Amino acid sequence: MSAYDRLTARFARIGALGEAAGMLHWDASAMMPPGGGAARGEQLAALAGLRHDLLVSPEVSLDLGEATAPGAWEDANLALMRHAHLRATALPTALVEAVERANSACEKVWRNAKASADFAMVRPHLAEVVRLQREVAQGLGEALRMAPYDALMDGYQRGVTAADVEPVFDAYESWLAEALPRAEAIQARRGAALPLPGPFPVAAQRDLCRAMAQVVGLDFNHARLDESLHPFCGGTPTDVRITTFYDEANVAKALLGVLHETGHAMYERGLPEAFARQPVGEAAGMAAHESQSLIVEMQACRSDAFLDFLGTRLQASFGGDPAPYAAANLGKLWRRVERGFIRVDADEMTYPAHVILRFRLERAMIEGRLEVAELPEAWNAGLQKSLGITPPNDALGCLQDIHWHDGAFGYFPSYTLGAMAAAQLMAALRRAEPELDAQLARGEMARMMGWLRGHVHSQGARLGLQDLLRAATGKPLDPADFTAHLTARYLTD
Amino acid sequence: MSAYDRLTARFARIGALGEAAGMLHWDASAMMPPGGGAARGEQLAALAGLRHDLLVSPEVSLDLGEATAPGAWEDANLALMRHAHLRATALPTALVEAVERANSACEKVWRNAKASADFAMVRPHLAEVVRLQREVAQGLGEALRMAPYDALMDGYQRGVTAADVEPVFDAYESWLAEALPRAEAIQARRGAALPLPGPFPVAAQRDLCRAMAQVVGLDFNHARLDESLHPFCGGTPTDVRITTFYDEANVAKALLGVLHETGHAMYERGLPEAFARQPVGEAAGMAAHESQSLIVEMQACRSDAFLDFLGTRLQASFGGDPAPYAAANLGKLWRRVERGFIRVDADEMTYPAHVILRFRLERAMIEGRLEVAELPEAWNAGLQKSLGITPPNDALGCLQDIHWHDGAFGYFPSYTLGAMAAAQLMAALRRAEPELDAQLARGEMARMMGWLRGHVHSQGARLGLQDLLRAATGKPLDPADFTAHLTARYLTD
């Protein structure tokens, strides 16, 4: 057995344990009775511990030193193994354990702090989390030869740095300052939307969501659609589990949510089977993943063409007056621009402002240019500058997201990198498929999904984000396609 | 850290991996889309492989040599760890792999052989399985200082030997020869049962099954009831997963099946929490487990008293003429004695005859007194002797069960040991609870389940079967309580 073969056997085991953990996470959210939580924690901890043990073993180090790859894919696989081993061994166990303790303590206090809009309550805990994340970033950065903040970003999305992101985000911010008031004025001129009648019985919503996931291309021989409080896409590439949450008063929540999760699911389904449970067979990262949910939900399914198709299906499912289901009205309802305090409720035009704010603040915290005590003020000033609004309290400001309070630094950019990558991929796809809108208007997505499978899904983790975009679209990350998309959708009367 | 503490930490990990595998098995039967099968196989194989690696490690051997237990439970735990390590290390890897290959190959061929009632098709495969099981039994027997067949039985139920079982089975067979014709005559005199009207809509069956599981005492904060082709009880002690299969034409199938699985579930729920994920915190074995499903389903829930309660609930659920739901009529329907070819369809009186036949044949095969080629003839002669019927073909004879064709030898006795243990426990329980029938007639099972929790569930795997029965009932396995139960139910006019 060659060193490379020993490594693939070991990583197949690590991958299988990861798949098992993925299934147990899904079960915990969608199926598990409340009393199963403690035991589930033990099961997941055992799986995580064994994966770590398998990854950091000295044998891996020896085999990595010796292994040669028989081809380009195998070479990329080997590089990813080396990368994973480096990340897993870069930090002393004492630091990793301190991080876990601090994150867990902070996250618990944060829930109460957010509920009572009291930043002071969580401040010392968050300060400890940040102090440790600085150490983590330093340690990972040295091992990976990256800047500290880049090493944290790398944990969520390989192949893109803060230096890549910064000019892109700056350009977007400048564009938005000018575009947002114009979009608001146009929106005001267009007038109010007709509300959808409702109520929308859960059984009919479930059938419609399932049918729309199939329209996107999801094969339920390899997928399930269930319910959970927080919708997500989990499971494994041959057995994808998406969830949603039905609200009888609001059909958009589940329907657009399922289309979003189906985009994620299609990515998993299209990953290269020949490298299942190998590092190179995984998705390319969080931004890449978000690009696939957003190209389906935001680019394709909220387009005029698809809304035309979707309105007919909605009317068929729920009956009543057809007028509110006209594409133009659905567009007014589901493509509404609004300056708000809450990121997760934001529209696609203002969403990046929320992300850019967080990117700057978290980077400053990791690089020691911002202290946790200064966070609320910096947050409020930043939001005032970009959206012209100031949160009335920290629950609507710097306490709103779990991420930092659970130790996740470097994740936020992925959302907007995903949105921009989605627009960039869509522009390339439209060049290859000039008839795309006609297809979408008929609910035909096979050619679109085929293009994505070829250019993104089937590439696995072979390429980092910038290289993936270069190969698929001919250029690295470029906000121009995203602003062009927004211009067409929101700035054209 | 003491050697004992190192061992408990390791076995906790092994236990957590076992729980994870249990959940994934449940998911595979109740939830998984068909396309997930191959990946699930990889996940389960990885978990099994890691559990084995953790169990056979030389460190376990060293710690077992050094460890001392701080109390009686810990001492039993240590003995079970030693036992598990011995079983896992007794056989050479080459033999274990040969067994897996042979079982898997034979099981596949058996499906076709059974479908075409062609024993010759599977004969060479089964001969190879038996040849290897003889080696396994030999190897395990030497390591455990047991007779070869006993070492196989030990894999399913500790603490009972073929020498214990043989006189019990012989006595039952003699009793049955005389009792069966009498039971048939009495049954004939009682006349035919009124059929239950039906159909029984699935939603109403589901509600009733859930309610009846709660009557037995199942807490759905720690349990789920779902559907699968082959009903079973899986999951973990704080998160039990039972399944059933609804047939709108036949309510008994799901209802009595759920009561059976709930008996298993209550055993899991009552296992000692202080030893969760430790060997001594597990159930005492397959016969002990079957005793708990059968004491609920057969002893309690098919009693006249409980059928009275159940009939009222059935009528409330499904309406129509109340006459078929009278306890006496339900008794005629659900306690019908009948000589048949198929074990899984057998009533409680003839079921042991099927098991005794298999016990004798499999023991003879393992001990080299019977060759596979002679099996069909020996089977047919045995069934003719005990039940007076001869299978018209091998699909209704020696091809009916998967067990041997999948390498499971020593399992069959557990079914009847469980039925007898259930009767023996019920007799002791009735001495402690003279008002039991009045409680059952009101659908009250709390005192019954409390007694079982104290005498069986909370004992975990501390005792082998014979010792468990001695502690709970004052005597080792004794078929007299079982035949007394059958006499009262089937031989009393």
Q: If you had to describe this structure to a student in words, what would you say it looks like?
A:
The structure is a homodimer of 493-residue chains. With 493 residues, chain A is mainly alpha-helical. The first copy, chain A, folds into 2 domains: 1-89; 160-493, Orthogonal Bundle (Neurolysin, domain 3), CATH 1.10.1370.30. Chain A is built from 20 helices and 3 strands. The first copy, chain A, has helices at residues 3-30, 37-56, 58-66, 72-89, 93-115, 119-144, 148-154, 162-190, 202-216, 251-270, 286-301, 304-318, 327-334, 351-366, 375-387, 413-432, 436-441, 446-455, 465-473, 480-490; strands at 223-227, 233-236, 239-244. Chain A has a 3-stranded mixed sheet. In chain A, helix 6 (119-144) packs across helix 7 (148-154), helix 12 packs across helix 13 (327-334) and helix 14 (351-366) runs antiparallel to helix 15. The longest helix of chain A has 29 residues, at 162-190. Chain A is globular, with a radius of gyration of 23 Å. At the A-B interface, helix 1 and helix 2 of A face helix 1 and helix 2 of B. Chains A, B: It catalyses: Release of a C-terminal amino acid with broad specificity, except for -Pro. Chains A, B: It holds the Pfam family Peptidase_M32. Chains A, B: One of its GO terms (molecular function) is carboxypeptidase activity.
